[in-house]
Design a protein that fits this description.
By secondary structure, the protein is mainly β. The protein has a domain of about 45 residues: Cysteine Rich Protein, CATH 2.10.110.10. It has two helices and nine strands. The protein is rod-shaped and about 70 Å long.
Length: about 140
């Protein structure tokens, strides 16, 4: 289809012998497909991610749109182990009591007060003997 397609990057007609099709309806000149954030060329050697019609390299897409740790606000890598409390996600090393700094481990009782994790010693026993894993603090 060279000559008929319009480049999603520059808007010009693609008359080159080659074009890059990123999704079913987005086509690019080979030279125009670059990360919208850092300008890195995105070709068959670099993974491309799309958001709102813009292309991003993996690093910038993760940094801008990926899930971030509720404590340190850093993005997660694919090899990171995580802990979850309700809709918050934490690096293992960030999953700590806000009062005493003790790292919370799987099976530990804790509560979540707004954004702060509190170990059982710092929030007290659960009300009426209910399990305190991830529950609102009394």
């Amino acid at each position: 289809r060279p000559g008929l397609a319009l480049c999603s990057g520059c808007g010009g007609r693609i008359q080159d012998p080659f074009l890059l099709r990123v999704s079913p309806d987005l086509e690019w000149h080979v030279a125009c497909l670059k990360c919208a954030e850092c300008g890195q060329p995105l070709d068959e050697t670099c993974t491309c991610f799309l958001r709102d019609g813009k292309a991003y390299c993996k690093r910038d897409y993760s940094r801008l749109f990926g899930i971030k740790c509720a404590q340190c606000r850093a993005a997660f890598s694919s090899s990171d182990l995580v802990m979850r409390a309700r809709d918050h996600v934490y690096h293992l090393e960030c999953f700590r009591c806000a009062a005493c700094g003790r790292q919370l481990l799987p099976g530990d009782q804790f509560c979540l007060r707004e954004r702060d994790l509190l170990c059982r010693a710092d929030h007290g026993p659960p009300p009426d003997g209910a399990a305190a894993r991830g529950q609102p603090c009394p």
